[in-house]
Amino acid sequence: MIDHSLVKRFRQEVGDRLAHQRRLDQANGLAAMTGEDERQFARALISQVLEEHARSEIGLGRTPPTVEEEEGLAAGIHAALFGVGRLQPLLDDPDVENIDINGCDRVFVSYADGQELMQEPVADSDDELIELIQILAAYSGLSSRPFDTANPQLDLRLPDGSRLSAVMDVTIRPAVSIRRARLGKVFLSDLVGNGTISPEIGRFLTAAVAARKNIMIAGSTNAGKTTLLRALANEIPPTERLITVERALELGLDQFPELHPNVVAFEQRLPNSEGQGEITMAELVRRSLRMNPSRVIVGEVLGDEIVTMLNAMTQGNDGSLSTIHANSSMEVFNRIATYALQASERLPIDATHMLIAGAIDFVVFVEKRNDYQRGGTLRRYASSIREVNGCDGRVLSSEVFVPGPDGPAVPHAPIACLQELMAHGYTPGVW
């Protein structure tokens, strides 16, 4: 067990010494330390502080920390300085899928095998939990994000790629949900390997991306939409210029320059305390079209940006990708129409359906399900793929892949653009 009161005290000491060194470097005209240099220097300071503490304990006639205890303290101090404090061990655990915090001492963790367990507190008080979230909000993403009484909602991407959502003052206690990004650099072959998609669907999606088809990925929360989107994006040739638009940076395509050397990541900016400076998703999608994109990737459609995005898809920006919340591949069209009604354009449903028919080529639906025949293991898989065929008062579509006997999608109906996909390597019916 780590003594978190010591971690808090030593974090302050190391932080003060680190700040003092920064001031000295600046006064002497030295270049500021890089992030990695600062972390290495902090490790040296942590060792120094712990050594001083051990000597102090011996001088007072007490037993100093053991080697294991010192290692735990060092990891805790480093996490408090550069990581996410007492959340760090959970984020370091590769089996953790989601972390739900209902106040500092009510921590529920979901694991990859389907288990959900209650874990130790992540802070000594709710105020300390709020302070931790405020620190993360100040340094994660492209701009500082407020989290206080005036701004009680927060969405951001953690350094490891996980997605954090937090609220305060609209709940009795501060609440935080963290969705882990367990697969960073992921390919369609990885998803074939873990059963998310079949080998045929893998080849189909590879060809669809190569043929620059506009693909919308739909599903419920935590069904694996973003993971599939990353895998599709990694099928795009490295010679193409990609622009991603997100509410909070999550995709992280720019982190892999060997796959995507030419990426611009846009992040929505929230208004300041005076209500100024907001840049909406719709504005960012519009701006992205002026940045010479080969493809525009919208991380998640949740509102009026849908009209701008569909317009972009019909104006020569083929090969776009996006995700949307929906309960089925068919329901996607109604969900888009609902978002379009909320936009400033106030598009009627029939106009929206015409826009959808001209913009989207395929809808891929992914779902998650507990497989009780396999001990309750949580499974995620693509269960339906729908091809958009046109518009006749409503969107016309055909379900070219339908749920198979075991859940994952299997071929069902002829694909209208089959010849085009075959030109990019897809051969139907080969398993």
Observed structural traits:
431 residues, alpha/beta, Beta-Lactamase, Rossmann fold, 36% helix
Order of helices and strands: HHHHEEEHEEEHHEHEEHEHEHHEEEEH
How would you classify the helix and strand content by structural class? alpha/beta
Counting DSSP H or I runs of 4 or more residues, the number of helices is 13
Domains, number: 3
- Determine the N-to-C terminus distance: 52 Å
Query: What is the CATH C level class of the largest domain, in words?
Result: Alpha Beta
Amount of helix: 25-40%
CATH architecture of the largest domain: 3-Layer(aba) Sandwich
Using the alpha-carbon principal axes, give the shape.
Answer: elongated
Number of strands: 15
Strand content: 15-25%
CATH topology of the largest domain: Rossmann fold
Q: What are the segments in which pLDDT stays under 50 over at least 5 consecutive residues?
A: none
GO molecular function, one term: ATP hydrolysis activity
Protein name: CpaF family protein
Organism: Nonomuraea montanisoli
Domain Bacterial type II secretion system protein E: 89-364
